Amino acid sequence: MPHVIDTVVIGGGFSGLFIATQLVRDGRDVALLEASNRPGGVAATISENGYVLEPAAGTFMVPHRALSPILNAAGVALEEAADSAALRYVWNGDGLIVIPYGPKALGTKAISLTGKLRMAAEPFIRTKPPSGEESLRSFLTRRLGREAGTLLSHVAASGVYAGDPGTLSAAAAFPLFTEMESTAGSITRGAIRKLRALPKPRPPRPTSHVPVGGMSAAATTLAGALGERYVSEFPVSSVTREGDLFWIEGPETISARSVVIALRPDDAAKILPGMETDGLRGWPSSPVVVVGVGGTNDEVPLPEGFGFLSGPGVDATILGCLFESSFAPSTAAPGHSLAKVIVGGARYPGIIEQSDDRIVSTIISEMEAALGTPVNPSWIKIVRNQDGIPQYDLKHRQRLTIVDNLEGEHPGLIFAGWGYRGIGVAHLATEAVSISDRIE
Ligand SMILES: Cc1cc2nc3c(=O)[nH]c(=O)nc-3n(C[C@H](O)[C@H](O)[C@H](O)COP(=O)(O)OP(=O)(O)OC[C@H]3O[C@@H](n4cnc5c(N)ncnc54)[C@H](O)[C@@H]3O)c2cc1C
To answer: How far apart are CA 421 and CA 427, in angstroms?
Structure first.
């Protein structure tokens, strides 16, 4: 009988890396199996000509209860972004309008006085949520009024999911909002309650940090800290269960008491023969194209700040544009600028099929319109992400019951990653801690 491992984690993206690191922190015997020859999954940094482009997540918001201890345990080196990273804009078609952070957002010029007055009335609005799933747009317009609700649902859907606020589920995509309504009767009152519940003195507010060397370097550090427990070039072909053990087939056969499948639902379905996995196939996602736009500071003049999102009334293919080198100078050589432009998503899914030339000419003219200045890049990088960003739509919570059922029928089998219960890297760390707690 070969050595039985406590827990095998399949998939060396940030989800699998965080889970394996957390299991090791909790004193568990673990192996992390990654199909490719590099860790980090979709967050595969491109370093070229002095530019550091992140085709997926590029920053960590820390300190964070779950994420910080995991990054620190592995020794991931972080650089704090410039203070101006707190400065975020919306492009309304005429120019960039500042959306201040937190309650100061009420001062933004992006919303009229009437819209702000309605927004300020939110704690006193008593509206009944509909009986079924409610879209993000419907939820936020019901709570904050038509103007603010339309704007905020649009930027939240684009900025986080490259999604459509009319088809994303409020409860699946932004559960904190709906939870605040159900527990405190209002988002504002729920937020105040949460602030009051914070320990005193209040923990420092999380700010944007970039990993030194990019996300790939962070992934390599996390994998390195796992030592021999991290196994690369191990594409798992099947996971089956016999009695209390799981058998994991790949270049070798491994047996384990628990298996965490940190793969997107479609990829998970492929490796689970003999289990009811039809319901894991074809979950919706929005393809996106990430374009790195680089040049000297004169060629690509970027304002201070984190970046802008296109507003709801703007007919543009750009969903958002991050001023990478403004808040993280190490992403471009001195005297140079780098913008990360995200196009496509649920709004323009067809853009992924367009030629490079067409994509570039469209986004450059849109950038010029938004920034109000000529843009003449000398470096361009286009990354097409056909698998796209998972969409937590109105059927998402119903689909999750398939995952719950599989986990219930096969004790020790756990699904993780951005396809299921949280899209961002901070959530993946929170999930890693709860998974480690769940495993006996
Ligand atoms: C454009 C874009 C912008 C984003 N911006 C942000 C942001 O600003 N902030 C944020 O928090 N998040 C952001 N994200 C999301 C973030 O990047 C993801 O949440 C995270 O990288 C997903 O990690 P994962 O491990 O769940 O999945 P993946 O990265 O998809 O990893 C899955 C891994 O499994 C491996 N694998 C697949 N099949 C097998 C198999 N059979 N056997 C073994 N291994 C296998 C793959 O090779 C891969 O390494 C963004 C994503 C995109 C696309």
So the answer is: 8
Residue 290 within a domain: no
Residue 10 CB less than 6 A away from ligand 1:
yes
Q: From the CA of 266, how far away is ligand 1's center (Å)? A: 13
For the stretch 187-231, pLDDT in tens is 999 999 988 998 888 888 899 999 999 999 999 999 999 999 999
For the chain, what is the largest distance between any 2 Cα atoms, rounded to a whole number of angstroms? Answer: 72
Q: Is residue 319 in some structural domain?
A: no
Q: Is 389 in the pocket of ligand 1 (CB under 6 A)?
A: yes
Instruction: Give tens-digit pLDDT for 319-368.
Output: 999 999 999 999 999 999 999 999 999 999 899 999 999 999 999 999 99
Show the tokens assigned to 283: 């979950």
Closest alpha carbon to 338 in 276, 290, 384: 290
User: Whole-model pTM?
Assistant: 0.97
Q: Is 236's C-beta closer than 6 angstroms to any atom of ligand 1? A: yes
**Confidence band (pLDDT; 50, 70, 90) for 2?**
low
Domain boundary among 139, 164, 197: 197
Rg (CA), the chain: 22
Amino acid (one-letter) located at 300 = V
Domain containing 129 equals 112-197
Q: How far apart are CA 344 and CA 410, in angstroms?
A: 38
86 φ/ψ sector (left φ>0, alpha ψ -120 to 50, else beta): alpha
